[in-house]
Fold:
Amino acid sequence: MAGDDHLLRVDPEIEKWAHMRENTHKYFGWSRKTVRLTMAWAVAVPVALTYLAYKTDDRWNFTAGQTKAEINKQKPQAEEEA
Structure:
């Protein structure tokens, strides 16, 4: 079917958005907002995930499901002598 190149109408706003998205490096500039977002994603998120990993380290035994052992690795509480 030769000649069916223009079946869809071209939306100029979508074309403008696509051009800006493909050429972001030409139009990017540092501002307070971009610095804040960069710090949040480059520093705060990795620090939070690292903290979470260390906080939950050795809390569960995922191999216990295969060995019929207890999955929760909670320390047994000492019984108080009365």
Observations:
- The mean pLDDT is 82.
- The two ends are 92 Å apart (CA to CA).
- The CA atoms of residues 21 and 47 lie 30 Å apart.
- The longest helix spans residues 32-55.
